[in-house]
Amino acid sequence: MAQDAGPQTPPRPGPSAGDRSPALHKVEDQGHDTIVRVGQVDRIWSDFYHHALTAPWRTFFYCSLLVYVGVNLLFALLYMADSQGIKGADPHSFADFFFFSVQTLSTVGYGGMVPVSRTANLIATVEVLGGMMINALATGLIFARFSRPRARVMFSDKALILSENGQLHLDIRIANCRRSPILSVDVEFALARLIHTPSGRVVRQFDPLTLQQSHVPVLRFACTPTHVIDARSPLDGLTEKDLAAEEAEIIVSLTGTDEASGQTVFARSAYGFDRMLYNHRFVDIINAGPDGRITVDYTRFDQTESPLDENAEVAEYLADQPD
């Protein structure tokens, strides 16, 4: 990839020309919560299970609490309509009817309050049936949320473009944060950019970036997938200004199998060209001690070094040595 004269870190892409949105290149980097979908109504009841699985834990907890309290309030009002139908409950105490509803919904049945009228028994029957369905649904949702496969994978804060041995390449470091390894890992890089078609339309195009090693049998600690920028690379010949004008970004996706659970896990990240660092490489984070134990220093995960600085230090060290 050709570089323009000037600073090594490319400027942030500004608003583009025409009818292009200035934030389109941030779709993968920031997620899809900021996207406004016109003509598509997202009704929660049409895809309730997906919404319940993907909602944040705080939202899930408060919505569940609201539904639980609301259902019990509704049944407490129904029981209160037949105030003499519950033996052991104060006819004028709404709290008694509310807590009787809680006991009935959960099928606890302490025995201190029991339905005696036909109306109260009918309401209790409906509530018990509904309570079993609600409990089954809540149990399944909570289990699914806890058991949903997730990869605890770190992606480096910066993507590096470095020339070594006369060869330009793109590096991104990936690390497994769990103790159990990820098996049969497949990594993909893609260049996403906005392209003007001959008809004048603007489309988002994805060009795969071939990696030197796209398949890793076992990801125990960290790896650094590398894309060589040569004549076959979609990045060949493009300058920083070209990529900024096309609002380009590098999309990284990882797929593998968690050894502990046997489930397929996924992870992804994206790098706009404001997150590129030139003529740097990642520092080592894996060291072997004298006792044979391996140390992985994740505090240095995002740290980089310049080969030019390293060569200068080596030259300075050699110059200080006696002949």
TrEMBL record:
The chain crosses the membrane at residues 59-81, 122-144. GO terms for molecular function: inward rectifier potassium channel activity. It is a multi-pass membrane protein. SUPFAM superfamilies: E set domains (SSF81296), Voltage-gated potassium channels (SSF81324). Residues 153-306 form the Inward rectifier potassium channel C-terminal domain. Pfam families: Ion_trans_2, IRK_C. Keywords: Ion channel, Ion transport, Membrane, Potassium, Potassium transport, Transmembrane, Transmembrane helix, Transport, Voltage-gated channel. It is found in: Membrane. Residues 75-146 form the Potassium channel domain. GO terms for biological process: potassium ion import across plasma membrane; regulation of monoatomic ion transmembrane transport. Residues 1-24 are annotated as: Disordered. One of its GO terms (cellular component) is plasma membrane. The keyword ATP-binding does not apply. This is ATP-sensitive potassium channel protein. It comes from Komagataeibacter nataicola.
